[in-house]
Amino acid sequence: MTRILLLNSGPHSDASHGYRLAMEAIAASGIDNVQITERDLVKSPIPPIGRDYAIALTSQTAPEVKEFEWSERLIVELEQHDMLFIVTPMHNFTVPAALKLWIDHVIRIHRSFQATPHGKVGLMKDRPTFVLVSSGGFFAGERAKQTDFLTPYLRYALASIGISDVHFFPLQGLVFGSEAVSQALHEARRQLSEKLSLARAGKSVMRQGSTPAIRSSTGETQPTV
Predict the structure, then answer these.
(1) Are strands 129-134 and 83-89 parallel, antiparallel or unpaired?
(2) Among 20, 114, 137, 157, which residue's CB has the most CB atoms within a 10 Å radius?
(3) Structural contact between residues 112 and 105, judged by C-beta atoms closer than 8 angstroms
(4) Three-class DSSP category at 83
(5) What CATH fold (topology level) applies to the domain 2-223?
(6) Where are the domains of the chain?
(7) Which neighbouring-strand residues pair with 88?
(8) What percent of the chain has pLDDT above 90?
């Protein structure tokens, strides 16, 4: 079985272009026996980090205390999956608040990374990670009119916990009409298909002739039999 964690941090939820493309690409990937866990960070927001968490963190408190409950839940969820998909809009040049909060919970000293004299060393196993970034304007390529802080930030943040096999797929220019949307989806679909093929070839649990996956009413996708 290949377990995929799909984080959705956009306001359009499962109606977004990025979400639909991610699900389409997974279904067409040829990955066998897929189980998808979806976490919608907007529909089901995670709690903010407060004073109790900060005190526990700086006091080197045991990881099982209640102040780390949500952090631990999200880290364990990530650890239990073989592949990560992140569907996100670009908000004001970088990640939206919902995704930033997930990052703040997951990056935790002595749990997902260790501090050393040379900097952070990730404690989590690397896994193929695919980030679909939606934007009304252009942030990559010759038509870009703004700086992209999202890509380098998210790449660095994930690398700090040990996840460096990260691939970005821009869905940009989405406010410029249906033709622009179709072009963005076509290019992202092509790139995503290529990367998923490489990921499938590199994992023994992924094989040709996959069984399609279906999503249960709980929001977690279960493989068909």
Answers:
(1) parallel
(2) 157
(3) no
(4) strand
(5) Rossmann fold (3.40.50)
(6) 2-223
(7) 133
(8) 80
